[in-house]
Amino acid sequence: MSISYQSALSQIKAAPAAVLFIDTCIFLDLIRAPVRGSINASTAKCANKLLGFGSNGSHVWLITSVTVQDEWKDNIECVAAEVDREILKLEQSRNHFLAAASATTGSQYSHGQSAKTLNLGHGLKVLSERILNACMIVEPENSHMVEAMNRVKQYRPPAKRGKAEPKDCEIFEMFLHFCKDLYASNFQERLVFISSNTNEYSKSNAGGIQIELDQYSAKYVSDLPWAFSEIGLSV
Q: Which pTM was predicted?
């Protein structure tokens, strides 16, 4: 269930703790991690730790946007199917390698754990949904949308020439508004925006978003393990 921006802001002010604002790609990277070498293998471990917060005395605010939730719903089945296909390819490649090795040496080799029996794609899809549901899912305000269109027109990250990215701009503007409003109330906890979409958010795109975040002592990171480091948690 989504909540208003003002309600989310009030809750954070009432119980200050580190804020992790999670972009769509992070929820999907959680599922892709076993089959993509570019994604930190500790991502799922971090996600499970986040679910344990509150029960062990630790606390962090997990925030995302209704727009992120909608993008997750639009993409989750396709991503889960992609991961299942890649796991099958890995299994087939392993079988082929062992068959070739046996033919070469005349010895028999143990196959070990079958990747298919782990049902990993489904398990990670469930974990991704649990993390999403653990977030405060915030409805964008008109001001977020207006400022997002200004970013598009001015080619400010995550927008760029030839790539408007209006949804990404709206998502980032919501986080930026949280930064402004919390900073104005003397908020002392860490504010972290997490997105693996480095092509749009990093320095390679017009200097990136960190330039704007610095004035609020906020941070852009590209994965959950890095976010953990920023708020002083171990993976």
A: 0.89
